[in-house]
Amino acid sequence: MPEDLGTSPRTRGDADHCFVCGPANAQGLRIKFQLDNGVCRGEFTALPHHVGFDSITHGGILFSVLDDVMANWLFLQGARGFTAKCEIRYRQPLPIGVTIKVKCSLKQRKGRLVVLESSAARVDNEILVAQAEASFMVEDFGQLPPT
Fold first, then answer.
1. Which of 53, 66, 114, 117 has a CB 3.0–4.6 Å from the CB of 132, allowing a cystine?
2. CB of 45 within 8 A of CB of 97?
3. pLDDT in tens, 27-78
4. Cβ–Cβ under 8 Å, residues 135 and 125
């Protein structure tokens, strides 16, 4: 399990079984996210059972990690919402066993719509692996800062 990165505790248990970040999901990735100065961050190392082909991490796993760092940008502020649209750009293959750091920040907010951007970069050489941008529809704003 990854090292605890956080100063932002999980204050709600309703996502404890989330595939990406849920601490109670035995088959999940169990990524721990932290929110610091408006940026959500985490780390992930793909294991052999996350492979797509040729010892490369499956793109769906990487997509899930980037989507979830964005969802946790909301979650760690007590907000509740869902992904309305997400676009990903894969830049480099991610070999199994290589650790990435993921991060997310706010791009735009208008009413219930929050646009977030995320990225994944290798820890060993800082090479960008993938980027994503998503629109989230927010149902409960929790402690999100005003627009």
1. 66
2. yes
3. 767 779 999 999 999 999 999 998 999 999 999 999 999 999 999 999 999 9
4. no
pTM: 0.86
Q: Are 116 and 106 in contact (CB under 8 A)?
A: yes
Q: CA–CA separation, 71 vs 40, rounded Å?
A: 9
Q: Which two tokens stand for residue 121?
A: 């970069």
Q: Return the closest-CA partner of residue 15 out of 68, 91, 83.
A: 68
How many domains does one find in the chain?
Answer: 1
115 SS3 class: strand
Domain extent at residue 90 = 34-140
Alpha carbons 53 and 40: distance in angstroms, whole number = 30
Sequential DSSP letters for 37-61: TTEEEEEEE--GGGEEETTEE-HHH
> Residue 38: what residue type?
G
Nearest to 44 by CA among 70, 64, 74, 24: 64
Q: Which residues contact 16 (CB under 8 A, 6 or more apart)?
A: 10, 22, 23, 24, 25
Amino acid (one-letter) located at 50? H
The identity of residue 65, as a single letter, is: V
